[in-house]
From TrEMBL:
This is Proline iminopeptidase. Transmembrane segments: none annotated. The gene is pepL. It comes from Flavobacterium orientale. Residues 74-328 form the AB hydrolase-1 domain. One of its GO terms (cellular component) is membrane.
């Protein structure tokens, strides 16, 4: 009898547990965030090569969707010009847990996209139209579309907003001043003098001779400037995705638009006179402006930009530099996530 009683208790316990699990599953259905079923990009794990129409023909650009959230979708615009989406690898460690969908994207002539190598295509106007074609292809709308631009991507994001803000739900300008001349002035008048005088003298001597291909120039910048203002870690500790991005950088488009020097945009760089400071008040979209205390971009200028925008907010990464999403992740990602969710919940002020 005792054995039968114990067996009966076990059966009752198992049934009760199963019912509890079933009820729990009904009350808390599994998240659809990682459900790619019935999606046209399930076969490729979220990757789509999107055809872009230009005056010089049709070319394909690389995109990769991570997650599935029809209300919060962030398109990432990388820096350079000529950089790659690889710089944003750190986002994998934060946004999925918050169920925010984000989309990697290599602009035309960047590593994973087609490379026609035609400088007539390297204009902000043409890149803006490229972003718009990507938006349409990915079905991003004013009800879910957040645009995040980092560095040069910040220029592109702002230019897109100035033309197409009606398509945006939220805008994020990450580590980019709104005036190329002011950027150069800050580099030369504030950051340069902070270097060892002998190091700065040698850098300037090499620049004066246009000897930018000299390995010594790269060595000086990497060891004395980049580790202070681009990514505040010893070079040997730089994250693999950043090293990979630099290895994949397209120098042709970079030099054409940005120039050789890291002390502003100089020479014949097509962006050297770019300035939209007098147009910021026209942007009504909720906007997060992200700055780093140690950035190549003046944090005071970035604060001014946030205040100039009618619906702007500043996120200052106290320990961050140009790649603040690596050297100040504890500030960068909580601030970014808070912004996206507040805009989504109509709580942004």
């Amino acid at each position: 009898m005792k054995t039968k009683f114990v067996t009966l208790l076990l059966v009752i316990t198992v049934v009760a547990c199963n019912e509890k699990q079933a009820n729990s599953a009904e009350e808390n259905p599994p998240s659809s965030y990682l459900d790619y079923s019935n999606s046209d990009d399930q076969l490729t794990g979220g990757i789509k090569m999107i055809p872009i129409t230009t005056d010089k023909g049709t070319f394909n650009v690389f995109t990769k969707r991570v997650g599935n959230n029809p209300k919060m979708r962030v398109l990432l615009l990388h820096g350079g010009p000529g950089g790659t989406h690889e710089c944003f690898a750190a986002f994998d460690g934060y946004l999925p847990n918050e169920e925010i969908e984000y989309i990697y994207y290599d602009q035309l002539d960047s590593y994973y996209s087609d490379k026609p190598n035609d400088s007539t295509l390297w204009t902000t106007e043409r890149f803006v139209e490229e972003v718009e074609q990507v938006r349409i292809a990915l079905h991003l709308t004013k009800d879910n579309f957040y645009l995040l631009g980092h560095s040069w991507g910040g220029i592109l994001a702002m230019e897109y907003a100035l033309k197409y803000q009606q398509n945006l739900k939220g805008l994020i300008i990450s580590n980019m001043m709104m005036s190329a001349p002011d950027y150069g002035k800050y580099a030369n008048e504030v950051l340069g003098p902070k270097l060892d005088p002998e190091v700065l003298k040698e850098i300037k001597a090499l620049e004066a001779k246009n000897d930018f291909s000299n390995p010594r120039y790269t060595e000086l910048l990497m060891n004395h400037y980049y580790t202070k203002h681009i990514l505040r870690l010893p070079l040997e500790a730089w994250p693999e995705p950043i090293n990979r991005m630099f290895n994949h950088l397209n120098p042709n488009i970079y030099v054409y638009m940005q120039g050789h020097s890291e002390f502003g945009m100089t020479g014949d760089a097509t962006l050297k006179n770019w300035d939209v400071t007098d147009r910021l008040k026209s942007i009504k979209t909720p906007t997060l402006v992200i700055a780093g205390t140690h950035d190549t971009m003046d944090p005071k200028h970035m604060e001014w930009v946030a205040n100039e925008l009618p619906n702007g907010r500043l996120l200052l990464c106290e320990n961050g530099s140009h790649l603040a999403f690596y050297d100040d992740q504890k500030t960068y990602f909580p601030g970014l996530i808070k912004f996206v969710k507040e805009v989504n919940n109509q709580q942004f002020k």
